[in-house]
Structure formats: C-alpha cells, structure tokens
Amino acid sequence: MRYISTRGQAAPLGFQAATLAGLASDGGLYVPEAWPTLSAAEIEALAGLSYAETAVRILAPFVGDALSEADLRALCEAAYGRFSHAAVTPLAQLDHRHFLLELFHGPTLAFKDVALQMLGLLFERFLSGGDQHLTIVGATSGDTGSAAIEAVANRAHIDIFMLHPKGRVSDVQRRQMTTVLADNVHNIAIEGDFDEAQALVKRMFGDKDFAGRFQLSAVNSINWARLAAQIVYYFYAGVRLGAPHRVIAFSVPTGNFGDVFAGYVAKKMGLPVARLIVATNVNDILHRALSAGDYSTGTVMPTATPSMDIQVSSNFERLLFDLHGRDAGALAAAMKGFESDKVMALSQAQRDLASADFASARVDHEGMVDAMRWAHASGQVIDPHTAIGLSAARAANMPADVPVVTLATAHPAKFGDAVEAAIGTRAALPDRIAGLMEKEERYATLPATFEAITGYIAERARPRA
Ligand SMILES: Cc1ncc(COP(=O)(O)O)c(C=O)c1O
Ligand SMILES: N[C@@H](CCOP(=O)(O)O)C(=O)O
Prior knowledge:
By secondary structure, the chain is of the alpha/beta class. It is built from 19 helices and 15 strands. It has a domain at 91-110 and 224-423: Rossmann fold. The longest helix is centred in the middle third of the chain and has 17 residues, at 224-240. One of its GO terms (biological process) is threonine biosynthetic process.
C-alpha cells in the first residue's frame, strides 16, 4: 500500500514512512492510493472475532509489508489488552434503534486511546534498533493530548510537545496531560484557541529550517495511522449489529473530522453504512459546508464540548480530495484559497457526492442537555460530546429499520461540571484516574506565536540524528 499526499507535491510513501512523517512535506495529508475492500464474506467472517483480531484483519491492507501479520497481531493484542472492557469498544442499547458505541474504556477515557495506544507501539517498533528519534508536535482541544502523552511517555526515542488552548479544556483533561512528569513530555498552554495551535503545528512541518533540524512527527489525526486504527471500531460495531446483511447509520460528534472520516473509509471498504451523521456543536463549519456548501470559518465559540470547539478541521481536506475527484492540483489550489481567505464554496456536484455518505446537524446547548437527560432516563450517563452526537442521531431522518449508533467519544467523568449541570449528578472518576486532582502539574504558558513555540521546542528537543 502506498500513501499519496492530497496536495500532490510530496513523494508517495509506504506505511512505515507515512506513519513516521505524520504530515506530508507539501502541507497535504497522506491518503491510501486506493481504498482496499472487503467482500461480504470477509465482513461476515469478522463475526465473533476479538477486537484485536478484528483490528488485524482491517489494518493488514493498510500496513502492507511494513509488518508481518504475526507482528501486527502482537501489537494489536498489546494495544487492546490495556482496555478495561473485554470487548474494548462495547455497544450499549438505548431503545429499539439507538445504540452507543463506548469508545472510552482506554487508559485516558476517550476514543483517542483506541488509535493512540496502537500508534505509540508502532512508533516504538519502527524506531527500534535505529538511531532516529522523533520530535512529536501536537495540538489538542483536550483528549488527543492526554491519550498521546500516555502512549509515548518515557519512550526513549521520542520527545512530545503538546499544545493546548489555555483555559479551554476541562480540568480533568488538562490534569491528565500536565501531571505526567516524564522527562520526554512537554505541555504548552498557548494563549489562543485550538485552531491556532493546530495551525502552528502544521506550520512547523512546512518550515524547512525547523523541519530540517528535528525529525518531526504527528499524533493528531493528520497522521494516517491514527485514522486507520479508528476504522476498526466501525466494522466491529457494524458486524455485531448484523453487517454485512444489515445497513447501519453512525452519528459522530465531530471536530477535526478524523473520527467520522474513519467511518467514511469503513464504508469505502465495504461496510454497509446508510449515512454518517456529522454532529457539530455551535462551531458548525462542517454542518454549513455539508448542508449549504459554505465552508467558511467564523470565531470559535467556547462551549461545554471543548474538544469540538474547532473551525478548521484537518481531515476535511481528505474528503475534499475525494470530492475534487482526487485531483491534487485542484485541491491544492482550493486549499491555498481557503488558507488565505478562510472561505471555500462547495459546488452542487460536490455536495451531492458528499450527501451519498454524510448527513449533518448542528446541536446547540439546549439540544445537548436534552440528549443527556434522555440518555439518563434510558439508564445511561453520557458526556456532553456524546450528547451532541445522540441529539443529531435522534433528529436524523433514517429509515425505521436502520439502527443508529452514536459514537460515545469520552467518559462522562471527564466533564463532571457539564454533566452535573445537565442531569444533576456527576459520574465518579474511574480508578484509572483516581487521585488526579491532587497531583502536581507541570506546563509552560506561551503566546500563540511561531517564534515563541518553536524557540521553546528547539531548546528542549533532540536534533535529527
Ligand atoms: C470527546 C471528543 N468527542 C469528539 C471529538 C471530535 O472528534 P474528531 O476531531 O475526530 O472529529 C473529540 C476530539 O477530537 C473529542 O475529544
Ligand atoms: N478534539 C481533539 C482535537 C484534535 O483532534 P485529532 O483527532 O486531530 O487529534 C482533541 O481532543 O485534542
């Protein structure tokens, strides 16, 4: 399997090189040259397999010859052996057609663990025996940061620098990052929002001098390996609900468009998906783009779903690449225009193409609270992000015989205040993070400027070997 850049100016890479590179040198994102497919019989054969074994079957075509099947199996078993639920990503039923796909049973209690536990092991595997070391630069609106830090803390060949928007993540989210005092972990609170953090990170990859001095890599979903690992749970849930013989819809609380893009890939690979419902909070650029062709940024509004307070969604570029007929030149020109003007219009033909796979909804604060209360009445305490997805799922116009699965992306204990405000009770902090609120924190606070951030990193990172 070869990976090509959405902007067409970087050399195609294999899985190992694409994983270590993170972002393509031309500013584009790596995508597989062609989508691998599974036959109906191959999907049927996933029934009854463990999560780790399902991961082996789904990831094998993406990994290609970068790992033997036995090595891939060993990594999947190690990664998913750390989850607190035997099913890794279990389904919970809310009523006759609504389900939650619980993605928060990993070490940091959010869906990011599903991919990052795997990515941490892949990095270690690809770096072992060599003299390379990676400087990981990442941006987080709350959950990627802690999952990535958990996955790479104390690894000899890696330094991680994680940028989060100061004061715009929950206390639990911040502490999950800043109380990890390992020498190779560097947390930076930037005086800006998530979009600025993400733009700074992307600029580092594109800066010849900086990228030449340090071997940069990514843990955000710009890294293809992140997304590949997230495809697995769509198949795992779909097969449990009757795929390939039954069509299923998924509702995905969306920020950076990574999670829902993984669902799109699952559909391309053959999973029968009626629609992927892109559920946004009031930071609704993706809903406007898909429903009205208006892909234009506004000011980011802080909400009770901070992990989704995003306007510029990295992975939307991967969908735009397909919507531009995989014409990298056309996409590169469109992205250049968007980067300078903050506006892009999707044509009617592009919207029609997208609407075969995606529906979308914007959910405001009241909609989120209603969904939390409805789930609570059905016996489930859900986090605010999941509630955005559930609200969109309940409003979606899906055929009556199609089950609708909402991705439960975080444990409700990560957002205790918002949960209590909505349903009058808090979810207890699970044992995994007990004592978190008493631990010592360490992080730097810096202005959101390229010079300040790269200067800080340059003083601490190990240069290229
Ligand atoms: C809890 C939670 N829900 C939803 C999202 C949005 O996911 P994505 O950025 O992949 O669209 C995030 C952040 O990524 C998150 O942390
Ligand atoms: N909500 C995310 C934002 C980063 O998304 P990613 O999937 O690209 O890592 C977070 O929790 O940090």
